[in-house]
Design brief:
Keywords: Membrane, Transmembrane, Transmembrane helix. This protein is mostly helical. The radius of gyration is 18 Å and the shape is globular.
């Protein structure tokens, strides 16, 4: 059995128990309905990606943040359903979930980049840096795991990156015109630093 990570375990320890009390009963109902973690992942991932591309590219940033946050909650359920079910998560399920996460992450940034393509050429370039560096964070970790080297940590993992960009989008729509500029520059910088940190971790791990 493969243990599938769930957002419940990324919460602060003080919040895990009350959140689990809400999520677990719903997950058990989903299991009885024969709804698999893969279907939950698919709906959440595609819903998040499509919402991001449509809403962010049209400048509806706050609405987009709400929609993406809603579909992000599916991560709570697919992981919990996998944990509570007898089969657990399969290798295919883990790959599907990870792939959909990458697509969703890209869609969130691409949606914003499309909106600014005729408004701020410099910002569009920074968006590209943020997209590439964010992908590299995940790629470097995946390569490390393929080489059987532990590669955890870094200043900006996926949760931190999502919080930065979604907060920037939401605040921008509330009237702070520089919010997205600040958020994207910060994201690009921290993601790049994280890539470097992980490369160093892998290098040190390869020497052991």
């Amino acid at each position: 059995m493969i243990t599938k990570p769930t957002m419940v375990f990324m919460l602060q320890s003080g919040l895990r128990e009350p959140v689990a009390k809400i999520i677990d009963p719903i997950a058990k109902v989903l299991i009885k309905m024969r709804i698999t973690p893969n279907w939950i992942s698919l709906v959440g991932g595609l819903g998040s990606s499509i919402s991001a591309l449509i809403l962010f590219s049209s400048g509806k940033f706050l609405t987009g943040v709400i929609a993406v946050s809603f579909f992000a909650l599916f991560d709570l359920f697919d992981g919990t359903v996998a944990r509570l079910s007898t089969r657990g998560s399969t290798k295919w399920g883990a790959l599907l979930d990870s792939t959909l996460d990458r697509i969703s992450d890209a869609a969130i940034l691409i949606g914003g980049m499309i909106y600014f393509q005729n408004r701020d050429e410099v910002l569009v370039k920074i968006f590209l840096v943020a997209i590439v560096s964010s992908f590299m964070v995940s790629y470097v970790k995946a390569r490390a795991e393929a080489l059987q080297i532990q590669c955890n940590g870094g200043i900006a993992e996926r949760t931190e990156r999502l919080l930065i960009i979604l907060t920037a989008y939401g605040v921008y729509d509330l009237g702070f015109s520089n919010a997205i500029n600040i958020g994207v520059y910060l994201l690009a910088t921290l993601a790049t630093i994280t890539v470097i940190q992980r490369i160093i971790i892998i290098y040190r791990g390869s020497l052991k």
